[in-house]
Amino acid sequence: MSFPPLAPVLDLSANPFAAARRPSRAPLATLFAAALLATTAGCAGGLDEPERFTGASSCAPGTTASSILQAQCFACHSTETKATGANLDLQAAGLPGRLYTTNAACNSQPMADSANPSQSFFLKKLTASPGCGARMPQGGALNAADTACLTEWLVAGKPNP
């Protein structure tokens, strides 16, 4: 015995026009996905890395002026040890602004020059010929990246007139 062919089952949940619309939506969806990817691909920095959002920094990745000062200077120039470091406290709040009002022990010049911060005595102390006193840090020299990082930090901290 043979049965007649079954009629196609009507799927009431299916949208008969969806297949016709999908081809026209595909380019739009692809464009949206590409735009989303393009706007988020370069956003790898966190709020604790503002240089990732404001532009390139002279500091090596993972390095800040604070970390350089802490590692290279605080042994002699911290709040606790400032008496052994020519009475210069690089740890207390207000740096780099305080450098613009602090005079060097060896020549009474301001540590930072507001007219030309990149030529400040603080930065000259990092060179082989600082003009007076010994090169800092004692017993060694900063690498070029750390010196550039501190220069950028001091210039950015220039007080407003």
UniProtKB/TrEMBL annotation:
Native species: Corallococcus exercitus
UniProt xrefs under SUPFAM superfamilies: Cytochrome c
InterPro entries: Cyt_c-like_dom_sf
GO terms for MF: electron transfer activity; heme binding
Protein name: Cytochrome c domain-containing protein
